[in-house]
Automatic annotation (TrEMBL), chains A, B:
SUPFAM superfamilies: Chelatase (SSF53800). CDD domains: CbiX_SirB_N (cd03416). InterPro entries: CbiX-like, Sirohydro_Cobaltochel/CbiX. It comes from Marinobacter subterrani. Its EC number is 4.99.1.3. Keywords: Lyase, Metal-binding. The lineage of its organism: Bacteria, Pseudomonadati, Pseudomonadota, Gammaproteobacteria, Pseudomonadales. This is CbiX.
Length: 124, 124
């Protein structure tokens, strides 16, 4: 059995700057994890559908979606699970939805580090 | 001159679980930084108005708002700056809007760490 493919799921926006920020956020993970990809829930490409279709074409069947969201709202409680159900049927894939990154205590510690860096700068 | 008060700004939601996640995310910062507070942009209390009014009543005049957002969209580019302008006039305070936490490279590294932890668990 091969390990599941990691998909970092961002919300997406028609604003390119939004997507660029998420690409930078994803970059350390994409460099560290083989075959990891970023995908957008809406308004930007690649979509989950695109990324999963590509993975299946390359022989993958198991995917883990890790939401680049700080908390779970309507999107992660309703919209994304419904999209996943449909994607599983369309592509014959197993797709596991992980908790949003913000539910991991590592994020709270990172936020504290960011605030500490901010405090060392004079407000501009 | 006293150092500015730190306000961690979350989006807010009528869903209590959403706010609880942000309170947990804010916790390490609130423990590490004197007089730091969390505030919500909308749909939850305390609002920015509440937190700044309280700070001013306690003698503070300078505030730094650090958005607990992964990227800057319409809210941080338009809505929040407009709210800040109004709050500055209402409360006679100086309010500096910092970049969203997601623009700091520390966050991308934290995401990689979260993914690594996720990979060590079998998908449930």
């Amino acid at each position: 059995m091969t390990s599941p493919r990691i998909i970092l799921l961002a919300h997406g926006s028609s604003d390119k700057r939004w997507c660029e920020t998420f690409e930078q956020l994803a970059d350390p993970t994409l460099k560290a994890v083989d075959n990891a990809r970023i995908a957008y829930m809406e308004l930007a490409e690649p979509s989950m559908d695109t990324v999963i279709a590509q993975g299946v074409a390359e022989g993958a069947s198991d995917f883990v979606i890790i939401p680049l969201f700080l908390a779970a709202g309507r999107h992660l409680r309703k919209d994304v699970p419904a999209m996943i159900k449909e994607l599983e049927q369309t592509h014959g894939a197993n797709i596991h939805l992980a908790p949003p990154i913000g539910e991991n205590p590592v994020l709270g510690q990172a936020i504290r580090d960011v605030v500490m860096m901010q405090l060392e700068q004079a407000p501009s």
